[in-house]
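ok so I'm stuck.
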Amino acid sequence: MKYRLDIAPRVSREVAHIYLYREENQGKGAADRFVKALDDCYAHILANPYGSQVRKEPFGHIMLHRLKYRVVNKVEDELVSVVQVRHTSRKTGKKFGP
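replied:
not stuck anymore, here's the structure
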């Protein structure tokens, strides 16, 4: 089955904020590593949409490789929606699970 990836507008804003923060505080290389890890994570989610750790139905969580960020997603039919990208030191919220 071929899945489609939907990235919520709020997630795009979160990602832009994270990128700018990492670029300003940790350098351009850190910001670029974040984008590369996020792209790899999106590819992994599309290849294996049910491979995420389920914390609270229907939301799955997957960690970015070698970074302390979590991607929260949900699968509905052929659509995989990314609903949050968050640093692990920040709470994900009751809606998405611990």
